[in-house]
Amino acid sequence: MVHGYKGVKFQNWARTYGCCPEMYFQPTSVEEVREVLALARQQNKRVKVVGGGHSPSDIACTDGFMIHMGKMNRVLQVDTEKKQVTVEAGILLADLHPQLGKHSLALSNLGAVSDVTAGGVIGSGTHNTGIKHGILATQVVALTLLTADGTILECSESSNADVFQAARVHLGCLGVVLTVTLQCVPQFHLQEISFPSTLEEVLNNLDGHLKKSEYFRFLWFPHSENVSVIYQDHTNKPPSSSANWFWDYAIGFYLLEFLLWIREKTKEALLELKAMLEAHPKMVAHFPVEVRFTRGDDILLSPCFQRDSCYMNIIMYRPYGKDVPRLDYWLTYETIMKKVGGRPHWAKAHNCTRKDFEKMYPAFSKFCAIREKLDPTGMFLNAYLEKVFY
Ligand SMILES: Cc1cc2nc3c(=O)[nH]c(=O)nc-3n(C[C@H](O)[C@H](O)[C@H](O)COP(=O)(O)OP(=O)(O)OC[C@H]3O[C@@H](n4cnc5c(N)ncnc54)[C@H](O)[C@@H]3O)c2cc1C
Known about the structure:
By secondary structure, the protein is an alpha+beta fold. It has helices at residues 30-43, 93-101, 118-124, 161-167, 199-204, 206-212, 245-249, 266-279, 327-339, 354-360, 364-374, 383-389; strands at residues 4-5, 10-11, 18-19, 23-25, 47-50, 65-68, 75-79, 84-88, 105-106, 140-146, 152-156, 176-183, 185-186, 189-198, 217-220, 226-235, 253-261, 289-294, 309-317, 343-344. It folds into three domains: 4-68, Uridine Diphospho-n-acetylenolpyruvylglucosamine Reductase, domain 2; 75-187 and 368-389, Uridine Diphospho-n-acetylenolpyruvylglucosamine Reductase, domain 3, CATH 3.30.465.10; 190-354, FAD-linked oxidases, C-terminal domain (Vanillyl-alcohol Oxidase, Chain A, domain 3, 3-Layer(aba) Sandwich), CATH 3.40.462.
């Protein structure tokens, strides 16, 4: 019988959101996850699965049952011919990379950090940059889902295809993702080149930059014209050591991120944000705005659904974990992004509700129908998801 713990306090990585689940479980097998769901059904409890707990919002919070997937973290199969790997959903990508390396394989694109799980990154539509590359969920070729009634669904393009199209960005609301099969590529090394530029130059030459580098992104330093352009490209050069000191030192941050149609709207949104900051000198932004690019896809609630996209994220640093005034900046940014047709990053704080999502996502009602069929009693809902679906 799986053991549940009382009195556990959950906090996300940035310590900006937390909750006190009634019971906290760390199952080690599918049978144990099933037991938790059976108990939840019996006692009419809600359930939330948590992966790496990195989402800078309350998307993974609950006061019901929390399932932490950290003990379901095995690599189950590596198919070197197809270059595919099947893992338990609780595996941290940081633990997967060396396993893939043993087979000279790698994932073609990753988010900024790897202390996140296979199930969690696809839950929120995690992305990085590179206009030829989709969000991480586009690397998923199959997954298994344990639904509220205890059924296991094998999902891929050829099996339960409609659920597959929804579950690759699942928001944690369709069931417990048990396993994920990822399409890999031959292992590669990247070379990074960064150089200074100006906002005007970058915005006027977006297409050129996108053509020049496979993984192009840039950082704009608010309250200035300054931009740091970053190119990352495949190289045959041997790797040099580089410590990722930045994240080691970051105590935490608030983060807000929206996506836009690439090119058409990027310039408009950034220039408007710049003008707003200039017009309101008391509104302070103390972190660069990161701008990244991603290929469109056909995953129902993917922020890149049917459009190549540009992500702009604003960040406020929390020195020594202290709160800083940020709401004016947040609201200004969110208003601009909504006006120009942006969609919020699912993992991050936003004020959008069902009405907004119905406008933003052509397939929103299709996703809702799948969710209601798989989870008719709302076992996997929480406060965050109620704002999305009600
Ligand atoms: C320092 C830092 C850097 C980041 N960089 C990036 C970045 O570059 N790009 C980007 O897009 N995002 C980025 N993020 C956000 C991060 O990638 C997402 O929040 C991601 O979802 C975190 O994965 P996780 O395993 O921590 O998931 P969690 O935050 O634990 O969960 C995310 C969602 O998935 C659900 N879930 C998790 N596992 C399962 C499962 N097995 N079955 C069902 N539901 C599940 C949860 O209930 C929740 O809804 C960053 C976050 C931090 C803190």
